[in-house]
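Appendix B, Record 12. Input sequence as logged:
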Amino acid sequence: MNRTFTLFFILLAVAKFSLLQAQSGANKDFFDPQTIQEIDLTFKSEKWRYLLDSLRYNGDGLLNAELKVNGKSFGRVGIRIRESGGFQPGNQRNNLHIQLDNVSSGQQLQGYKSIRLSSALRDPSMVREVLATDIASKFMPAPKANYANLTINGKYYGLMVNIEPFEAPFFERYFQSNNGAFYYCPAIRKDTIVRAGCLNGGFGTLQLEKNESCYGDNFVVVQGDGLRDLAELSRILNQSPAQIESILDVDRTLWMLAYNNVLINLYSYSGGKSTGYYLYKDADGRFAPLIGDFNFTFGSYKSTGRGSDLSLLQLQQMDPMLNVDNTLKPLINKLLSNPHYAKVYLSHLRTILFSELLTGAYETRAKQLQEFIKPALANDANKAYSNTDFDRSLIATIGRLTQIPGIVELMNERVRFLKRHPALAVLPPVVSDVKAKHREKFVASPMEEFQLNAKISEFATKVTVFYRYNNRESFKTAMMHDDGQHHDEKAGDFIYGVSLKPNSGNNRIEYYIQAENVKAIAYSPERYMFERHSATLEEINK
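Logged structural output:
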């Protein structure tokens, strides 16, 4: 009897552990970087390659297939080849879009209605997208990415990059809203006809068009009521740049432009054609740009629009102020012509350079990713590059006609070039000892306001604190002064302070500090987009 009960409880424990494992797997982030997803598609027709190619040529039609993800069946879904300048009929491995709710309305996976799979066509290293999104997400809104083994009709199609779609979970994570107008600037097809009276070759530069409809030649309305919002953004950018902060999140835009430059991401606004990026209008009515395709980072796409593709040396030594004098790219020209915005831009460029590249963190991560995916890639008969190319792809240029720079080969020299560049040679102020004053001992009355202090190195001309009392608010600003009027201050001691009284019902503050001298700007914390200082009235009154 005892043996029977013992066996029963062992079996019960095993079943419970298996259930917990299954639940854990089901709840695991679909873009967990330590996981290679297993995706299986089954088409009725064995001619599915031909059918997908045909649909790609004739619009955005979907071909139905049965889908399983990590063994879970989703029934019928819609499949198409994703928009891509590199599409060729008969490719062994193409970028794929899986529409989960095409047949079963409301079907989703962890809140997503679709799955985006990239073939990493111009990336022999197979790490550009995952590495680049990982870096971007530290400074700006960026999709998550990992890998997926894709099987079609029982045969291994290949190792794909699994990229988070720009859908509700993404927008709610970064913008707390999924209802804003949303535009995409795709690659311009060769058969595109520019309408009469519209700019020829304007692409997605946001140059001012005479007619609102002209923006439809370059942008797709993904969500929203048409092109009016986009036309208004372009009008203010070009004609009233002093008002630009009313309609554009300038700081997020400057982060994107700095990122594009440092990481040589020219298949975006900063490159020759200003395509491949998105614009999302947040709840405050301001647009934020989003990088759309990370496969071309680290110099995989090499055109600045001024002559032929850049050589390796030209990529390594690309000007950090690229296009600042180019009136055909107003998002760069208009913003960086503003001295304050130019300093913010260079601060962001410096932060990415010193925190991600100079430390060698990017190289370590790239090697870890390659080691992680090597077994799966070894079984991929449809991969575009050989195992030898994969092994050499970090340190050597791959290809003869289409030359893809080695990531480390490119970036190590770029780091050395940028460190010596005059635009980055000026040192910004140093911000340290950031704190909120606590109530002093033996003082009976509680503090009802936050007294914030920070030590700023010499020659600061302006110190600003950005603060809010809850995460539903936009950040407000206040000046900090070295005037001896706040805790631990004496006039001229480089301790800057400010007192801020919260609104009724609020007892917490989060904030970051911007310190400016004549030629440079510094922030504390450096990654203030996602990390901030904070204090509560309860803490300071202990």
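The radius of gyration is 26 Å.
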